[in-house]
């Protein structure tokens, strides 16, 4: 099972920032188990939405040079509010610095302008084939580009 926790990328400036949204629906399968009488988006999935948003910024900035972008470290994670069905989590990631394969980002998630979660994330990136892209890397990157064009239709117009 693969969770895509971003519904739309609404703004993107490569190397600087990205803004994406997640519309939480009561139909999300995990809400059946995550407090059935008080359904809220689990904190770990809020963090994953921030990680996925940040990964799209890295991919777009580097023109999809790597097939794998993963969370290396989450620092200062602060949960301030719940995200409930019917609400929209807006995730903003800002590029802080790049050191080798690692990118540091300042990320926040808001609901109706109010802080729900914030963190400093460090993401790593690499190719399965090492310095040279393998066939698996090329296939993964092609699929990622297809997903990106769905999430950010403006990219195909540029």
TrEMBL record:
Transmembrane feature ranges: none
KW DNA damage (keyword) present: no
One protein family per Pfam: FabA
Superkingdom: Bacteria
GO MF: lyase activity
Lipoprotein is among the record's keywords: no
Keyword annotations of the record: Lyase
CDD domains named in the record: FabZ
InterPro entries: FabA_FabZ (IPR013114), HotDog_dom_sf (IPR029069)
PANTHER family: 3-HYDROXYACYL-[ACYL-CARRIER-PROTEIN] DEHYDRATASE
Protein name: Beta-hydroxyacyl-ACP dehydratase
Organism: Blastopirellula sediminis
